[in-house]
Design goal:
alpha+beta, DUF6602, twelve-stranded mixed beta sheet
Length: about 290
């Protein structure tokens, strides 16, 4: 199978990205520990760096922003799908991948925004170094944000069809998670599965699509399939070997573009924006049973 040129190209891009961060650490070092001296700026630099790299390869009209998703309980399109709901908003999100060509923004200060859920194509949580406690915390935050983006396709022939949810990812430059029994990728998946086992069965679209350390490993969600009569999301893991730095960046780009070009998003739905009185397998880690695809 060919495609070697692309794999080599993406690997070089990731090498450059990681080297750029190393240069930041070199210029602004932290005494006696990893990273840069100013933790807040350190984290913000990593978010900006990843956003800049992704933005180079995405279609015009897609912006990589930071901020909040606001789901107001108002009319959307021609339907009343949110009747009886309450206004809701997400926690602060590191990267919101947003279709600003077709959807408006509630509030903007530079790249900091508050946006309606209809235009959200992806949400990425970014960590400089991934630690044990990040798994449950970030999975919960992304899960709650994804549920805000659930939307009916009100302008389609079938007004009850559901729009594909945003791409969800947790990304780091490096990983500090080192486990033996179970090994690292299995330990991470067990932590993810525990989050999704609380409460009702999750929708497939609300589960994390990708979690990875760009320099070390990747965990990826496969397409849904039936398992013993239930819809299941299977997760697979890869430790990056020589020449495989491309995996993380390719999973991110492929996931974002897959949502952007999905057939359920081709007819644009007017968002709720006003309110009058009266959203080869190296390791098969397991599967998570879902209540529905969307």
């Amino acid at each position: 199978m060919d495609g070697e040129r692309l794999r080599s190209y993406w690997s070089k891009e990731v090498e450059t990205l990681l080297l750029t961060y190393k240069q930041f650490e070199t210029l602004i070092p932290a005494d006696g520990q990893q990273g840069a001296a100013h933790k807040g700026e350190d984290g913000r630099f990593v978010e900006d760096l990843l956003s800049e790299y992704l933005n180079k390869f995405l279609p015009n009209g897609i912006e990589l922003l930071t901020g909040f998703i606001l789901r107001p309980s108002v009319k959307t399109g021609s339907g009343k799908e949110r009747k009886g709901d309450q206004d809701e908003h997400s926690s602060q999100l590191d990267i919101i991948i947003y279709d600003s060509l077709n959807f408006p923004v509630f509030q903007r200060f530079g790249n900091s925004v508050i946006v309606p859920p209809e235009g959200v194509i992806g949400i990425i949580s970014v960590k400089k170094h991934l630690n044990d406690s990040d798994i449950a915390k970030e999975c919960k935050a992304l899960y709650q944000s994804a549920k805000l983006c659930r939307s009916l396709k009100g302008n389609s022939t079938n007004s009850n069809s559901i729009v594909r949810g945003p791409f969800l990812a947790l990304v780091s430059m490096k990983s500090n998670i080192q486990k033996v029994n179970p090994e690292t990728l299995e330990w991470i998946f067990k932590g993810m599965k525990k989050v999704y086992s609380e409460g009702e069965r999750p929708k497939y679209d609300h589960l994390l699509n990708y979690i990875g350390s760009l320099s070390d490993w990747s965990i990826h969600k496969k397409k849904p399939k039936q398992k013993n009569g239930d819809l299941a999301a299977e997760f697979i893991g890869y430790n990056h070997t020589e020449g495989e730095l491309h995996l993380g960046l390719q999973y991110l780009l492929n996931g974002i573009l897959s949502v952007y070009y999905d057939e359920t998003r081709r007819n644009i739905t007017r968002p709720g924006f006003t309110s009058f009185p009266a959203k080869n397998i190296e390791k098969s880690l397991g599967s998570i049973i879902c209540g529905a695809e969307r």
